[in-house]
Amino acid sequence: MLINYFKIAWRNITRHKIYTGINILGLAFGTCACIVIYLVTMYDFSFDKFHPDKQRIYRIVGEAQNSDGSKEFLNSLIKEVAGFQNQVPGFEAKAGFYTYSAGVSIPDGKKPLKKFDNRIPGSYSSSTIITWPGYFDIFKYRWLAGNAASLNEPFKVVLSENRARKYFGNIPLNKMIGKTVIYDDSLQTTVSGIVKDWTENTDFGYTDFVSIATATHSFLKGFVPTEDWSSLQPHSSMAFVKLEKGTTAETINQRFETFIEKKVKFKDAGLKIRMWLQPLNEIHFTNDFHRGDDGDDFRKPYLPTLYTLIGVALFILIIAVVNFINLSTAQSIQRAKEIAVRKVLGSNRRNIMLQFLTETFVLTLFSVILAVLLVKPILYFFKDYIPEGVAFHLLNFSTLLFLSVITLLTSLLAGFYPARILSSYLPALSLKGNILQRGIEKVGLRKALIVFQFTVSLIFIIASIVIGRQMNFMKKVDKGFNTDAIITINKWGDRKGQLKVFAQNIKQIKGIDKLELQGNAPMGFAQMSSTYKYQGEDEIKIQAIIETGDENYIPFYQMKIIAGRNLLHSDSLKELLVNETLAKKIGFENPQDAVGKLLVESGRQGDKAYPIVGVIADFHQGSFHDAIQPAIIANIPEFKHSVAIKLTASEKNTSEVKTILSQMETQWKKVFPENPFEYSFLNESITWLYGQEEKTSWLVNVAMGITIFISCMGLFGLAMFTAEKRTKEVGIRKVLGASVANITSMLSKDFVVLVLIAILIASPVAWYCMNEWLQDFAYRVTISWSVFVIAGLIAILIALITVSAHAIKAAMANPVKSLRNE
């Protein structure tokens, strides 16, 4: 019997090729979107799930609130809190580590040193950390040679197997023990252990583990002065603990709070700090979305975006199912007599429902096969928006299980209602050609489904318009400085001052207009800040962003001085420029009044006062999520780790720019032979600040395209159903003198009404969602009424184009043929 159902299903599918094609295409698009979103979400949710006792592993994080109310996320301890791990019970293991960015050199007899970079493959993250033996008590590895205890000694390093093979080739692992690895040109270490590489997804794919004693017994002592946790600091280190069995994170957090309250005292009475344990499975995500946290070099997806993706996948699948239901019920007229004959010959309702469910299953199976074929091209086409590690492996158990579940679920959702309706036809009326009996002529459900489809589509259309306007605003608004044709090159840890040599060497390259040694560009992820005091009637403390540059910084970026003068030439820090926000913060609404006043810097070399010699117009330092902060421009030579280069050519003149970059790379290799030449255009760096918004925009646009496409096919089905149902009515109207335009308008009017209802439902929902989204921006566009008008017009136009073919065809049909059976 079951084989017979499949044969009949195949016969009906091949007989109605247009319906079959539309149904398969609609379900395939919906299913493909679900598969891609499943791969992305499962990839991100898979990080660091493989660790033994992962539920007991936590990172210590916190939040510091400055006296001015500003907050900073801490991805590690600060020195005032160090010692907590030894004074509070509840830890089975504990270890911190420092990231160490340094080139690697391997001696090879009398041959030149072999040079290697120091990055995790496919990442900008350093692959080397400086740590304690306890690191291997928290994160478990399989030891292939040596042991963790060796990291108690100075100048020892443990390598992962793949890294060791990269350094020393395919010699036996035991012969690698005792080999020399040189970091930073002069830090010589000896290999004391080799561990098996992890193969699962992780954010901690470190490969070189240098002993903590190495740092305190070498020139790194300035970076890591102690072997206890008092040296740990956010943005260069992390601290992990493994809780004892039976101990909860809430208990430790309470002990942490008590410890800080009783034992931690800050020089700045206005500083408040809160520390807590962050579960290992949360580290990969930005639950609170700390945009200023650049201490975690790994990619951090925004968790709400992943949940939104899952919601979008469900919506798209539901819309595809709705589309299938509409087309199936619209097709029912053509199959009424077939159902009647089956019933006359003895089929019961259960058999007929099973037959139609079988047809739906076959269609869904074809859709899933087509979707599977589309997945890899889609992943390639959208590779810039999809995490690099996402891959589609059809034969994976989890993938096969997901495909099986989605096939069965879609078959039931899409097939049950049409099967129930089709199996309910009375044979006597169906054989007479009158299937529009009571309960069936009502197309209210189909209309409701169309309204639902277009409501979802309109929400995406409105969201796309609003997000597009916000993105355009962020890209085109005046940022307070010039960004055109500027390249930045960074060299962190340039202790020998070689970056200055490189800058001098490239000055004469044709095509370079000017250059500037600096700390950072005015706007970007990397920012440095410090605390300043102003003594007026009351002492005012300000947390200010520091931009390091000399007298050429202002003219280089074409920033505007609104009071006072520019910095004078100097080899050291002697005076300051401040922005309008800082001037107002210390009490001067008129910028000129701030000129000549003294700011006292706290923390660098004690308290030292510097005069304000000028006030510059406010400029954006970070993304538009954050308000403009108080800022200082000062000449601090030891903080200059970047060179900014202004080109005479436009960024779009690729051939000329490539020539300039090639000449710059040649000079770079002369000065920094062990470091790769890397640069970034300032405009691109600023765009990276809006990477999350770019991805959100892409997601909304793709979802909008898919939902509109599927909704149009659903509308196509309802238009076809309506045209067939009203064939005789149209014939009578034509006989009585109605024109083609009149009839087309009559048939189209109902669909326009459905779209108008969808607009009324979608507009408040979309306004609320997008207004909430915009609240996350300090500088944002407003949602004007024109957004809803444009979205509505787009939806109506799409609907009219979709139904016009059926409407015009019905209006132009010969009335004699339509009335012949009457």
Form type: globular
Fraction in helix: 40-55%
Report on the biggest sheet.
13 strands, mixed
Distance between the termini: 39 Å
- The residue ranges in which pLDDT falls below 50 over 5 or more consecutive positions are 436-442
Structural class: alpha+beta
Taking all Cα atoms into account, the compactness measure Rg is 34 Å
Number of helices: 24
Describe this structure in words.
The chain is an alpha+beta fold. It contains 24 helices and 24 strands. The strands form 3 sheets. Strands 1, 2, 3, 4, 5, 6, 7, 8, 9, 10, 11, 12 and 13 form a 13-stranded mixed sheet that branches. A 6-stranded mixed barrel has the order 16-17-22-19-21-20. A hairpin with a 5-residue loop joins strand 20 and strand 21. The longest helix is centred in the C-terminal third of the chain and has 35 residues. About 1% of the residues have low confidence.
At a glance:
The protein is of the alpha+beta class. The protein has 24 helices and 24 strands. The strands form three sheets. Strands 1, 2, 3, 4, 5, 6, 7, 8, 9, 10, 11, 12 and 13 form a 13-stranded mixed sheet that branches. Strands 16-17-22-19-21-20 form a six-stranded mixed β-barrel.
Would you spell out the secondary-structure blueprint of this structure?
Blueprint: H1 2-15, H2 17-45, E1 57-65, E2 71-74, H3 84-87, E3 91-99, E4 104-108, E5 111-116, E6 128-131, H4 135-138, E7 143-146, E8 156-160, H5 161-168, H6 173-176, E9 180-183, E10 187-195, E11 208-211, H7 212-216, E12 237-243, H8 249-263, E13 272-279, H9 303-330, H10 332-344, H11 349-381, H12 397-422, H13 427-431, H14 444-476, E14 486-490, H15 498-506, E15 512-518, E16 528-535, E17 539-548, H16 553-557, E18 561-564, E19 576-579, H17 580-585, E20 598-602, E21 608-616, E22 631-634, E23 642-647, H18 654-671, E24 680-681, H19 682-688, H20 691-725, H21 727-735, H22 740-774, H23 785-812, H24 815-819
Parallel strand pairs: 6-11, 8-10, 17-22, 19-21
Antiparallel strand pairs: 1-2, 1-12, 1-13, 3-6, 3-12, 4-5, 4-9, 7-10, 8-11, 9-10, 14-23, 14-24, 15-23, 16-17, 16-20, 18-21, 19-22, 20-21
Helix pairs in contact: 1-11, 2-9, 2-11, 2-20, 9-12, 9-14, 9-20, 11-12, 14-20, 14-22, 14-23, 15-18, 20-23, 22-23
